[in-house]
Specification:
By secondary structure, the protein is mainly β. It is built from no helices and 14 strands. The chain has a domain at 2-92: Thrombin, subunit H (Beta Barrel). The mean pLDDT is 91. The protein has strands spanning 2-3, 11-12, 22-26, 29-34, 37-42, 48-51, 56-62, 65-70, 73-78, 83-89, 94-100, 103-108, 113-116, 125-130. A four-stranded antiparallel beta sheet has the order 3-4-5-6, with no helix packed on it. A four-stranded antiparallel beta sheet has the order 7-8-9-10, with no helix packed on it.
Length: 132
Amino acid sequence: MRVATGAGPGWEIVLPIWFLPSVAMLGDTVAVWAATRLFFLASGKHAVRADFDDEVHAVYAVDANFCVVGELSVSIYDADQSVIVDRFQADDVLGTSWWEGGRLFVKSGSENPYTFNPSAYAVHPDPQHKRK
């Protein structure tokens, strides 16, 4: 798949064909993903490929890094270093996520949202992990 964000040359990326691609606009970076494969595309840089253990559901910018919500985990990813900085492993399947008041909420299969205070270096789940 070819991705272009203007008059520049763009990027060639390969995503699993059995999933429709998802896109997030994150400031000067575009995130494109399908299934467990995620690409970060920033003007003037090579595409950064990240493969995760679980399916990627959403991607958010957190300071200079990215918060990746997966099917079973929430991770902080440093695209410059191509490394997961921190990860929270859920004990339930994760689904819809949203930001509210500087906090990340992620709905679980049991319908209780997990709450997080993500930073560029840590996921920071609330001490109770789930909001009742």
